[in-house]
Amino acid sequence: MAMSSDHPDRHVQEELATSGVVDRGELLPIPAPIGSQFCLARKSEFKIVESGECCSNSLFQVIDFQGNVLLGFRNAGFWPRKQILHDDYGRTLATLEQSTDRRLLKWNVYREKKPYKDAEDLLFTMGDPKVKRKKSFDIWLAGKEEPDFSLDAVYSKEYNSQIIHRGSEMVLAQVKEKWYFFKPNEIIVKTYAGVDRAFIAAVLVMKRFLISQQQTAARSAAGSNVVIFF
């Protein structure tokens, strides 16, 4: 299900070309749901910067610690219920879309951007876990009944969540969310060798929307008329 690597991310390729002698680690034998061109042969770090503007066309940017833009997410309409994941050239990689049934806490990710989506275009789905866990979500690859990955809350000084490959119980990424009053919020991400970084970024962006949906549902259940947007 990996996408074509005819147009790989240029900064990813620059990292691979100039890395020299690096800690290549052990490549994880796991799927690359969005594309193997976004996997590095070593551990890496990046951050997701949130614009904080609800009606902004671009809510999130994925950048490395040298300031290079690796990926971005832009609205596919006025409201951010559909996000376009694109590379640093602006080419569409995938479409992230909230379930049309608003009662379900679920988002689907489709291959590229198509006006009409077929079943074969579905890459993966993210939503509430089958076994309820606080601040956790499961991820299913297309056609699977059991989750392939999970995003789980972790209480640590160094990070507050992690993404796990359920089949091997390997940790793919460790995440630290940072909230600021006077500058954009940041999500600091550490990934292991062989991990699809575009997939990790998509999961973390969808988490922000899913958390907002949970808060709105909880307030609605409590009889509040307040609706939360971010």
At the fourth level of CATH, the homologous superfamily is: LURP1-related
End-to-end Cα distance, whole Å, is 32 Å
Structural class: alpha+beta
Tell me the overall shape: globular
Fold-level CATH name: Porin
> Please, what is the oligomeric state?
single chain
Helix-strand pattern, N to C? HEEEEEEEEEEEEH
Report the strand count. 12
Task: Estimate nothing, just give the exact number of structural domains.
Answer: 1
Task: Pick out the low-confidence regions.
Answer: 1-25, 226-230
CATH class: Mainly Beta
Counted by DSSP, the helix tally is 2
Radius of gyration equals 17 Å
Q: Concise description?
A:
This protein is an alpha+beta fold. The chain has helices spanning 10-18, 197-221, and strands at residues 44-50, 58-63, 69-75, 82-87, 92-98, 106-111, 122-127, 137-141, 149-153, 161-165, 170-178, 186-191.
Provide a descriptive summary of the structure in words.
- The chain has a single domain (40-218), classed as Porin, CATH 2.40.160.
- The chain contains two helices and twelve strands.
- The protein has helices at 10-18, 197-221, and strands at 44-50, 58-63, 69-75, 82-87, 92-98, 106-111, 122-127, 137-141, 149-153, 161-165, 170-178, 186-191.
- It has a twelve-stranded antiparallel β-barrel with strand order 1-2-3-4-5-6-7-8-9-10-11-12.
